[in-house]
Specification:
The protein is of the alpha/beta class and 342 residues long. The protein is 47% helix and 18% strand.
């Protein structure tokens, strides 16, 4: 059934993508069609938030714009959607921070393991425009810029049949990581074998034992079925990485001052709705994973994991000294909102 669904998704993606690339339906009744792509299901907090954005824009500027949201990679993989947003073939898409690292080294900072000591520090820092602004604008020359961030929770390890209580438990295990140099280095320091691959390939790789586990948030267990295969989820809390909503720079610059104000309010709405829905979704995912999929949740001491990854902080700052002021500003939030375990 999963293979059939994947095949159907590929067919739909080809049809939709052909229409986008050939410019079909660029205007409807004199209105510009704004296409937004993401890789999540329709019940995911990201889709819920973008649907609210669609309603908001059309309620304020419905005479000019018709917003269409495409879930589940209907417009292609994340990498393909970013490229389409660069060229203006689509207007917006949601991209992982790790993918954006390949377009701007500034995004490397948010991929750094244990950058944030608590969810409160993470949220406060991401809400600070002095921190996010320079990073969000750093891809404008590449044709797109970030317009808001989305909560993707805490990334943790989950495995098929090996409980992860210490970094030593990762030795010899092939763990899927996002396609980012930072994540590969993290796994090397923790003793595991990094296996970068696209998110859509993970379920099959777990099922066929090509990999022994992966790292992601709780929703991956339920929304993507990984909990059907992986029975141990370990809260090592190695990363709190936002997803990023990006927009085509030329389109954003073409908006009038009044239109841009409406869109900015819409971006704030996306952030607010997504974060609220995220909290509810995580609670529901944990309940389903434990009671329906038989996933066991583990809570190891995170200090050994932090110590193993600590060299990455100074290495990154030595390589990218311009990021030091932003890094230091984040440390102030870490001091203000310490971990409950500290």
């Amino acid at each position: 059934m999963k293979n059939f669904s994947k095949g159907l998704a590929c067919v739909l993606a080809a049809v939709v993508l052909t229409a986008v690339l050939t410019g079909c339906g660029g205007r409807a009744g004199g209105r510009t069609i704004i296409r937004i792509g993401h890789n999540q299901s329709t019940n995911h907090p990201t889709h819920i938030a973008l649907s609210e954005f669609e309603t908001w824009i059309e309620s304020k500027l419905g005479d000019k714009y018709d917003v269409e949201v495409f879930p589940s990679e209907l417009l292609g993989s994340q990498n393909e959607m970013v490229q389409l947003t660069q060229t203006g073939a689509i207007h917006f898409c949601v991209a992982s921070n790790s993918l954006l690292e390949t377009f701007s080294t500034n995004y490397t900072l948010f991929n750094l393991p244990y950058l944030f000591v608590s969810a409160e520090a993470y949220h406060a820092a991401m809400d600070d425009a002095a921190i996010t602004g320079p990073i969000f604008a750093s891809t404008k020359d590449a044709g797109f810029e970030a317009v808001t961030w989305l909560d993707a929770g805490t990334r943790n390890f989950y495995t098929v049949n090996t409980p992860i209580e210490t970094p030593a438990d990762l030795k010899g295990l092939k763990i899927r990581v996002q396609q980012s140099p930072t994540n590969v280095q993290m796994m090397q320091l923790l003793g595991g074998s990094a296996t970068p691959m696209g998110f859509g390939e993970v379920y099959t790789a777990l099922q066929s034992k090509i990999i022994d586990g992966a790292e992601n948030n709780e929703l991956a267990l339920t929304d993507n079925g990984h909990g059907d295969v992986c029975k141990y989820y370990s809260y090592d809390m190695h990363q709190m990485i936002p997803d990023i909503l990006i927009g085509n720079a030329a389109f954003l610059d073409s908006l009038s001052e009044e239109e841009r104000a409406v869109f900015e309010e819409g971006f704030e709405l996306v952030n607010q709705v997504q974060r609220e829905a995220w909290t509810d979704a995580v609670a529901a995912a944990k309940d389903r994973a434990a009671n329906e999929q038989g996933v066991q949740f583990l809570y190891p001491d995170t200090k050994p994991f932090q110590e193993a990854c600590a060299p990455m902080h100074e290495d990154m700052l030595a390589q990218y000294p311009d990021l030091r002021p932003i890094y230091d500003a984040i440390q102030q939030y870490n001091e203000q909102y310490p971990s409950a375990a500290s």
